[in-house]
Design goal:
Layout: E1 5-8, H1 11-22, H2 35-43, H3 46-57, E2 62-67, H4 75-86, E3 90-95, E4 118-119, E5 122-123, E6 130-131, H5 138-160
Parallel strand pairs: 1-2, 2-3, 3-6
Antiparallel strand pairs: 4-5
């Protein structure tokens, strides 16, 4: 079953990596804000950013957090996680540091962003699955994510059900 997903990631360093994952064709395609559009939204202030996130999460069944080196530190990623969970969406994390950026560079592994939240007295990171593809080459990581993403999404949806 094709799911509608909202992708959460640190835009500047990881937008190239995120677009690789988004374009795998495993789930329904969702348009990303271009860098120009994102800059316009940011200039309008926090309320405009919240409204954009809220509008873009609407109708989605899952929030997929693409974890780069500093994703867990990002204010808006935290908001997207909290909003998704509070609205009953499934959550899934995928480390993307070994995917190459547009210049062919990999980055360092980032922290699990779900560790900053609690649900039912335990860390959300103990509920939400986060995957770190066991490959070192960008093509290996890409192939691993592509081969497993649909199953990870369905598993995340099942994990979320008892908390709804």
């Amino acid at each position: 079953m094709a799911r509608k997903a909202f992708y959460s990631f640190h835009y500047i360093p990881d937008n190239w990596r995120a677009s690789k994952v988004r374009n795998m064709g495993v789930i329904e395609k969702n348009p990303l804000a271009s860098s120009n559009k994102w800059e316009e939204i940011k200039q309008e202030g926090d309320d405009a950013i919240r409204q954009w996130i809220n509008a873009n999460q609407k109708g989605k069944s899952i929030v997929i957090v693409l974890i780069g080196a500093k994703t867990a530190e990002r204010k808006w990623v935290k908001y997207e996680i909290e909003k998704g969970w509070n609205d009953g969406r499934a959550l899934l994390g995928i480390h993307i540091h070994n995917l190459e950026d547009r210049l062919g560079n990999q980055s360092s592994k980032g922290s699990n962003p779900f560790g900053a939240f609690s649900v039912d007295g335990k860390k959300l990171s103990s509920v939400v699955k986060t995957y770190d593809p066991p490959r070192s080459t960008s093509s290996g990581v890409y192939n691993y994510i592509s081969a497993n993403l649909a199953d990870w999404i369905e598993e995340a949806v099942e994990i979320r059900k008892p908390y709804s």
